[in-house]
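Notes for week 9. Today we move from apo structures to complexes. The key idea is that a small molecule is not decoration. When we ask for a structure prediction with zinc ion present, the ligand SMILES becomes part of the input, just like the chain. The input block below holds both the sequence and the ligand string. Read it once before you look at the output, and try to guess where the molecule might sit.
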Amino acid sequence: MPFYISQNTLKQQVKLVVKNWPFAEIKSHQARILLCKLYGFENQHDYLKKTHETPSSLTPINEQTVINAYLQWVKRLAKLGSINEIQAKNLLHILWPTYLAPHKHLKEKLYTCKFKFHGTCLDFLNQATEDKWVDYKFDDRPSVKDAIEAIGVPHPEVGGITIDGTDVDFNYLLEDAREVEVYPHPYETGLLPYKPERKSTFLLDVHLAKLTRYLRMAGFDCLHESKDIGDELLAHLSQTNDYILLTRDIGLLKRGNVKHARWIRNTEPQAQFKEIVDYYDLLDKFKPFSRCVKCNGDIQPINKESIKPAVPGQIFESQESFKQCAHCNQVYWKGSHYDKIKNILLQAE
Ligand SMILES: [Zn+2]
């Protein structure tokens, strides 16, 4: 049922809307049509007709009816004016100051969902939240991905999301009063990106030089951030299917275009290596001594005589087989990294 608004009140409110409109400009006649529709009339003609002819059929305006209509008005005003709900609320408080002043709490965010985080998702939250529901308040309709990141968990770490028990993907738009549960990888439905299906290249940020070396020793293709690869490019590369971004920078993981990625929990390089081997199940993919630890190039067996000038004489005499990086020409033999690599790989098993 439309509301009874006197012509005088409507006239004042048109002025207020024009004066306080959140964007550059709204004309008086546009503001008048908007207000007529806000209060439940089809158009100005409908407003004039009903207000004159059947005022008793209209809802009277008082504190109670304004409060009751508040949420509906916020949504309608936002939609009619193409403004967001916060702007709509601000305008309503300007239009009805007397009735709304005692109800300032209405300006707070409109909706609440409950979130519960599981497993390693809790690594990003206060541990006291384990097994507890966390309230998340919002206006409009954020995606569940944005809400999860606003609470603190970067999206690449999320393997599964349920809303009231049903699996959804990142694009689901939140509504009021839902129960959202967030699970880490691996998660059975596979709705959210975990790791590339085909062969993968690791992208490591600038702080992970040692982990890069270990992964290369084990034969994994690794790009390491240097002066040439900044955050922007790392994030850009990681949105394609074949890259896994590894970093200790949570902000980098929250970039929207990052797809497959992991926040490295450990700070000690060997522990980091084991962490990655376990998380991505890499043990049976080891190909030691196939990749150059310096430049990521392929290393190939090479004729012993041809590298004579490049290695110390004693090494040349004592070793039988040599390999060389096809890209940077670094020469490898069993004595150099062999024992160290073997130890690290054995420890990872
Ligand atoms: Zn090399």
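Residues 292, 294-295, 297, 325, 327-328, 330 surround zinc ion (CB under 6 Å).
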